[in-house]
Amino acid sequence: MRTPRKVSGRRAREAARMHTNTTYLPPAGVDLERLDREIAAMYRDVANETARDLHFPTGRGLAQALGYPADLLDHLPGGAVTSFAGVGYHLGLAGLLPGEAVLDLGSGSGMDAFAAAVAVGPLGSVTGIVITPEQLTKAELLGRDRRVTFVHGRIEALPFEDRSFDAVISNGVINLSPDKRTAFAETARVLRPGGRLALSDIVTDRPIVARTVGQADLWAACIAGASQTDAHLEDIAAAGLELHQLRANPGYGFTSDRARSTSAKYGARSISLVALKPTLTNNTNTTQEVSQ
Ligand SMILES: C[S@@+](CC[C@H](N)C(=O)[O-])C[C@H]1O[C@@H](n2cnc3c(N)ncnc32)[C@H](O)[C@@H]1O
User: Fold this and answer.
1) In contact, 221 and 208? CB cutoff 8 Å
2) 131 lines ligand 1 (CB under 6 A)
3) 153 occurs within a structural domain
4) For residue 16, what pLDDT band results from cuts at 50, 70 and 90?
5) Neighbours of 208 (CB within 10 A)
6) Which atom of ligand 1 is nearest to 40's Cα?
7) Partner of 219 for a Cys bridge, out of 8, 109, 225, 249, CB 3.0 to 4.6 A?
8) Which atom of ligand 1 is nearest to the CA of 56?
9) pLDDT score of 210 more than 60
């Protein structure tokens, strides 16, 4: 089994300090400490299955609407499926192979990490990273016998060595990051050449105005922090990753009236994509398949 090497020391400490880094300027109107509190509370309640009146759907019904095969869900821990809060079925695009090392960014209560572990088998490895302690604890308990490791940390400062993973997956998380460029740069750093990023996320047709961006509960609910599609793809390209596939996820929709009207106003919707880290010898030969 390939086990990615974790970094301790300076980079791990930098991850913990991320939001007090004075060189990083958050988007206008965003109070990072309030946003952290809102994300912590929202996903704590999702993990504890005590969330009421959420802006977004969760659980098995959501997973099936997005395209997760029912027989795959049957093989995953029930508590992880109940607390699933993703926005797409990017695992269908990821093409995970037996023996691969996979990193799940913002692994929540672990459903995608457990699904990835089924795909990579006993010779592979899966690591999930997440900031919400209750989700981390839940996933660790559910995954005791599943060859999946969960780590507490931020996607903007990954505590792993360069080129540690064959694939990075992420579901509904990049939109929550106040520093998406750094999150993608970190993704590219930990991928091996020839490795791939498969993600599902929320993007918009129009830029979101500052007043809406400043609504921390709507940011935590995966709307107010979403990038316009072009900016999202530019951030991926700026990290040196090449878009390979892109598709819309019509099965995803927000649930509260406020979230629905905001998403309609900005054209917020879910997409899944695959982007490749070029190999050292050939970085021009990728075919693109784009359908939105
Ligand atoms: C919408 S939920 C999706 C969770 C999981 N991927 C799933 O599909 O159920 C977003 C997750 O991202 C995590 N998260 C948000 N911002 C993060 C960051 N900067 N670094 C690491 N995890 C983050 C939250 O703790 C939460 O678990």
Assistant:
1) no
2) yes
3) yes
4) very low
5) 24
6) 25
7) 225
8) 1
9) yes
CB 266 less than 6 A from any atom of ligand 1: no
Any ligand 1 atom below 6 A from CB of 115:
no
Q: CA-CA distance, 218 to 213, in Å (whole number)?
A: 8
Q: Does residue 203 have its Cβ closer than 6 Å to ligand 1?
A: no
Q: How many domains are there within the chain?
A: 1
What residue numbers bound the domain in which 197 lies? 10-22+31-291
State the pLDDT confidence band at 12, using cuts at 50, 70 and 90.
very low
pLDDT single digits (tens) 278-288: 997 655 555 56
The response to whether residue 135 sits with its C-beta less than 6 Å from ligand 1 reads: yes
Q: CATH code at 225?
A: 3.40.50.150
- Per-residue exposure over 230-245, b if at least 16 CB sit within 10 Å of its own CB, e if not: eebbebbeebbbbbbb
144's tokens? 């005791």
Ligand 1 pocket member 106 (CB < 6 A): yes
Q: What is the whole-number distance in angstroms between the Cα of residue 287 and the centre of ligand 1? A: 30
Burial class of 77 by CB neighbour count within 10 A (0 to 12, 13 to 18, 19+): buried
pLDDT per residue over 41-91, tens digit each?
999 999 999 988 899 999 999 999 999 999 999 999 999 999 999 999 999
In a domain, 146, yes or no: yes
- Residue 8 pLDDT: 58
Task: Tell me, yes or no, whether 1 lies in a domain.
Answer: no
pTM assigned to the model? 0.92
